[in-house]
Amino acid sequence: MSYRTADSLRSVTLDDVRGARKMLSGVARVTALEGSRYLSRLVGAPVHLKCENLQRTGSFKLRGAYVRIAGLLPEERAAGVVAASAGNHAQGVALASSLLGVHATVFMPQGAPLPKVSATRDYGAEVRLHGQVVDETLAAAEEYAARTGAVFIHPFDHPDVIAGQGTVGLEILEQCPEVRTIVVGMGGGGLAAGIAVAVKALRPDVRIVGVQAEGAACYPPSLAAGRPVSLRNPATMADGIRVGRPGVVPFGIVGELVDEVRTVSEDELSAALLLCLERAKLVVEPAGASPVAALLAAPETFEGPVVAVLSGGNVDPVLMQRVLRHGMAAQGRYLAVRLRLTDRPGALATLLGVLSAADANVLDVSHVRTDPRLGLTEAEVELHLETKGPAHCAELGRALRDAGYPVIA
């Protein structure tokens, strides 16, 4: 497809990416490429996971941040840098600035997860909490830059940042020279654009597929319009790709070089994160799991060998707990049922015996005894069960009905 914009600012070239790689030598890790037997069986061809979740700071963001800051003039470094981020970019800027001896101020939303705030401070940045949403935080950072002269480090909309992210593409070609498809998550588009520049220059036959969350998919309407357009309220659990408008620089590159942009649902993201944890033994944040979600959603549409880029692993433990539960529910491994029983001693124990015999694990039980819908001797019970999948859920339903417990809904 071709949606080249009239003004895509300075172009990013293969030489830029190669220069970025030299700059990052000894700074960014060459992250592992791990095979996935489960996904390979599903796709019918080899599938590999590019583990940027194991990069320093827990995501690919260090690459672009370091290249951008290292390219500043001495007087710009002296003025310091400023960034706005809820997590990954904040940590990348913080570590890059510390390594280069540049003072960094990072604005983060007031509700940012505490582990991400603490990590950003530990990497050496001055953290200022401002605003409830990233747009408010971004405005505060831009005002700070205008007032102090600090250089604003954009998370994706700058050629140097894109060149740094493109080093992921060079590594993929070296680690998997036979690759046919690269799948990468997209927010503003910096990582996908960088990978596309590097890969298409060396292997134009490789197909590059970008993946966005359904609730924050700014690229499909932008590509259709031929220019970056804004989403009104981007919403997704995948905060790493929750971006309401493509960057001008990556948009031009994505439109020319990325072959396809797909979207995935919240259920698919949850299932992908769960699969990464259970099958690959990798902690991945929802944004990082988006390529895996696309593979799970339509495995037959990808030509292998496939490389899926796990872009980050900085997931808040509270979110992880919620997402894992959601992912298990999406796979039919949680079951919530409500039913009525006679309110007498031993009634609950009898019910639990039925569930035990059906090999269900009871996670939670709640009673309702005072409700106009209930008879004088009735109680309503809601149970949350851990199951083995959809077939087991159906088996449990039959076991309850056979034992005389009609499920309400």
UniProtKB/TrEMBL annotation:
Its cofactor is pyridoxal 5'-phosphate. The keyword Amino-acid biosynthesis applies. It is an enzyme of class 4 (lyase). Its EC number is 4.3.1.19. Residues 336-409 form the ACT domain. InterPro entries: ACT-like_dom_sf, ACT_dom, ACT_ThrD-II-like, Ser/Thr_Dehydratase, Ser/Thr_deHydtase_PyrdxlP-BS, Thr_deHydtase_catblc, TrpB-like_PALP, TrpB-like_PALP_sf. Pathway: Amino-acid biosynthesis; L-isoleucine biosynthesis; 2-oxobutanoate from L-threonine: step 1/1; Amino-acid degradation; L-threonine degradation via propanoate pathway; propanoate from L-threonine: step 1/4. Keywords: Allosteric enzyme, Amino-acid biosynthesis, Branched-chain amino acid biosynthesis, Isoleucine biosynthesis, Lyase, Pyridoxal phosphate. In the native structure, TdcB is in a dimeric form, whereas in the TdcB-AMP complex, it exists in a tetrameric form (dimer of dimers). Belongs to the serine/threonine dehydratase family. This is L-threonine dehydratase catabolic TdcB. It comes from Streptomyces rubradiris (Streptomyces achromogenes subsp. rubradiris).
